[in-house]
Design goal:
Length: about 120
């Protein structure tokens, strides 16, 4: 069974840092794009950052200069380093990835991890 498992969320004060991890497990041949999304209460899910298999990245304007996405292809893992956190970063953060499996490409979501930033 293929799945994405996030970790690293928690409660932090404004100005603090957190590092999220998302590991893909199961029978996976390779992983194309990987990304982090977030959803705050009462709001739509939004893209935070994405990274291609070649390492190209893009970020939401609201997190540019504060967040860094990276990946370890050998570990099938994507990371999100979050610095200078603000209360408006509070949300459930979801990992997303395009996984190359036996039947083709499978787009998968993790279960989400809560990030809470106190003022």
């Amino acid at each position: 069974q293929v799945q994405l498992v996030e970790s690293g969320g928690g409660l932090v004060q404004a100005g603090g840092s957190l590092r999220l991890s998302c590991a893909a497990s199961g029978t996976i041949f390779s992983i194309n794009a990987m990304a982090w999304y977030r959803q705050a209460p009462g709001k739509q899910r939004e893209l935070v950052a994405a990274i291609t298999s070649g390492g190209s990245t893009n970020y939401a304007d609201s997190v540019k200069g504060r967040f860094t996405i990276s990946r370890d292809n050998a570990k099938n893992t994507v990371y999100l380093q979050m610095n200078s956190l603000k209360p408006e970063d509070t949300a459930v953060y979801y990992c997303n990835a395009d996984l190359r499996v036996g039947v083709g490409i499978m787009n998968s979501w993790g279960q989400g991890t809560q990030v809470t930033v106190s003022s």
